[in-house]
Write a structure and sequence with these properties.
The protein is α+β, with helices and mostly antiparallel strands and 515 residues long. The chain is built from 20 helices and twelve strands. A four-stranded mixed sheet has the order 9-8-7-10. α6 links the parallel β4 and β5.
Length: 515
């Protein structure tokens, strides 16, 4: 108890987290095959960009490789794989001797680096949907390639197995059963030393995989609908890749303009079955939520465009429905279909100063209050909702600031980084909110894992008895930072016209941090 105040401050909490992380990385406590270095089993085949494709294929066969690497500038790499050769050469009937590697190669995702944890590298593979990932040393030199199969000897093997079960499920029942294993897998990853931020990103990646397979099995399979006639967006926390075990799986569908009303009704019925499967798999629990199985969230492309423009111009349309829909769609991320400028009118909100001000007022409205939090933490209340009282205000401020700054970033921390340094959000406040968000998400996920292990449904509502004294202090400190930033943004808005909100970091001569 005497030491608790020392760790309740932002610096103290960061010091404690760094010490715990250092212990988790120590060789004595690390599980076998915990680093990507230990998973490399073969030397990569490297070919020049000008090599003829038939020669590349011969070398791949001779070295028993399914992939060849082409080095690009600045530590970047491109790949020529068996699948690429089949798709771009064999299937097109082109003459291999007349084609160069540079004509068919595809750039790989950002490489992993020696020293990276196996768990984090696996998350990157699954997030990027890559079959192979280059691994470099600190100088950017290629040291090897890694594939999902290489993780079989790692503590992350269960994660690889579950991802494959989701991706290859042959029936909706198989997919439901696999989906119910996801919380336990996330708990195992945390136990193996994966950071909470990476575990949350991995959870979102598994949800994406589940949705894609559900679309294949239900919308395309059971309902026999054309997969090229719609685009599927994940919204909300999953769109931001910040979903936790209690999060709903929000979604929207953008349908082709030439579909008839009856055809759209058929698609919505298929989407509703996908929603049902996700709930039955334990992923989301809101049958009346913002999902593509409800007509307001499944519209023709032209209808979405018109509605987005209307919401930007009139955010209070339908008692604030315009602002709510703009916020939801601002978090949208395409996981099926083609990415087009379907919702480009969202950024038109920056052209409406009045709309920006209304959205700011709505963003700053639900403030976390010290008395309410202190009531909980001093046992004058029984529960504390960490999402609504602490996390959502940060998410809302980051989203609004990113729209203001014209940033396309989706994650809360990336949005804060992109908007930091503007008049409305100073660099210092942006950095503080990034720390606050990471700490609160870590606490949130940790207690939800405990709820699952106790056989309870994961929830953002914590009982006072569950929250440790240090966590109570950390939450209180975090809320103070959120309130201070909200107060500053409100004061800037009262002194500066909307046209000046994205210029300089500080409106000269005007008070910003005083109530």
């Amino acid at each position: 108890h005497a030491a608790a105040p020392a760790f309740a401050s932002r610096r103290g909490a960061r010091f404690l987290a760094e010490q715990v992380a250092a212990v988790s990385r120590a060789p004595a406590g690390a599980p076998s095959y915990a680093l990507v270095d230990e998973l490399l089993t073969e030397r990569p085949l490297v070919v020049p960009a000008h090599a003829a494709v038939d020669e590349v294929a011969r070398q791949m066969t001779a070295h028993d490789q399914q992939c060849a690497v082409v080095g690009l500038e600045a530590g970047r790499f491109a790949l020529v794989t068996d699948e690429i050769l089949r798709r771009k050469v064999v299937a097109t009937g082109r003459e291999p001797a007349a084609i160069r590697a540079e004509d068919v190669m595809e750039e790989s995702p950002t490489p992993a680096t020696l020293g990276d944890s196996a768990a984090e590298t696996l998350v990157r593979l699954i997030e990027t949907r890559a079959d192979v990932l280059p691994v470099t040393d600190a100088a950017g030199e290629l040291r090897g390639l890694i594939r999902p199969r290489d993780f079989a000897v790692s503590a992350t093997a269960t994660s690889v197995s579950l991802h494959e079960q989701l991706r290859r499920a042959t029936t909706p029942d198989e997919l439901r059963r696999a989906g119910r294993k996801i919380p336990a897998t996330i708990a195992e990853l945390l136990a193996s030393g994966l950071s909470s931020g990476k575990a949350i990103a991995f959870y979102s990646a598994l949800i994406d995989t589940t949705i894609r397979r559900a679309l294949d099995l239900i919308v395309i399979g059971s309902h026999g609908l054309d997969p090229t006639r719609f685009t599927w967006l994940v919204l909300g926390s999953n769109g931001r890749r910040e979903a936790v075990l209690s999060s709903d799986v929000d979604s929207a569908a953008v349908l082709d303009d030439d579909l008839t009303d009856d055809e759209i009704t058929g698609y919505i019925a298929g989407f509703a079955d996908v929603d049902t499967l996700m709930r039955e798999a334990g992923l989301g629990d809101d049958a009346d939520g913002a999902t593509a199985g409800h007509r307001p969230f499944a519209r023709r492309r032209s209808t979405w465009r018109a509605a987005s423009a209307a919401w930007a111009a009139a955010p209070m349309l339908g008692k604030g429905n315009g602002a709510m829909m703009t916020s939801l769609l601002a978090d949208g991320r395409v996981i099926h279909g083609t990415r087009e400028d379907t919702l480009s009118e969202l950024h038109a909100v920056r052209q409406h100063p009045g709309a920006l001000r209304v959205m700011l007022e709505l963003t700053l409205g639900p403030r976390p209050r010290h008395p309410r939090v202190l009531d909980v933490l001093t046992r004058r209340a029984d529960t504390y909702d960490v999402k609504h009282h602490a996390i959502l205000p940060v998410v809302n401020m980051a989203r609004w600031a990113a729209l203001l700054a014209g940033s396309d970033e989706l994650s809360t921390t990336a949005r804060l980084a992109a908007a930091g340094g503007t008049t409305m959000l100073s660099t210092e406040h942006a950095e503080r909110l990034q720390e606050v968000f990471a700490v609160l998400q870590r606490i949130r996920l940790r207690y939800q894992i405990l709820q699952v292990e106790a056989g309870q449904r994961p929830s953002d509502v914590l009982t006072v008895d569950q929250v440790s004294p240090i966590d109570r202090s950390v939450i209180t400190e975090a809320v103070r930072e959120v309130v201070a930033t909200q107060r500053r943004m409100a004061n800037v808005a009262s002194w500066v016209e909307p046209e000046g909100w994205v210029a300089g970091e500080q409106p000269a001569g005007q008070p910003t941090d005083q109530p």
